[in-house]
Amino acid sequence: MRLLLFGSTGSMGIPLAREYLWVYRSSTLVLYVRNRAKVPKDLAEDRNVIIIEGELDDMDSLSKAMEGVDAVITALGPTGRKGPFYPSGTPIAAAYIRIMVTMKGHNVRRLIALTTPSVRDGHDQFSLPLVFLRKTFATLAPNVVKDIVAIGRVVRTQGEELDWTLIRLALHSSDSDPENCEVVAGYMGDGKTNAISSRVGAATFIIQELDKREWIWKSPILSTP
Q: Which intervals hold domain NAD(P)-binding (predicted)?
């Protein structure tokens, strides 16, 4: 398998890259980054890793990165650290459109996109912790949430030719106990999901989903049991 990973220097991108290389030891991992200096040393020096530098609006670089790819994982997302200063447009959602256009041009069907419970799903029910988290985030960073919601809409409406999965993640645990990083997949208010997930556990689940394909055209929330 040849995987293209976006957002590979972020808090979820790094564990995803490492988990992929552990599971698919003889396969190729393509990292699309703006600055290769931010790639951790162990990934940068791995012989199975290809690093391509480019912007998210650079169609030539996106096309180059997509060559020979079997699947795409996007750990891109707007950062809440900018809060009220985040731009009023939806730049990350626009980047998703360009990525999906490039995927279709190279006949790549499999897409796993990471997002948050700000993206709603018809299977969701009421969950006080997740609703509180969603409303708090929307109050503090409305433009960030606008972009996140737009990502979900773009994937669902423009990904009709793709085998997409939207993975919704809320807050991350510290992962201080490597033996206790299990996550479960479900929907808001189903009695299984909560507002906390493990980065390590989520990375394991997501990489396994590449082959399992149990959540095609679905939007599960991952959380600790």
A: 7-211
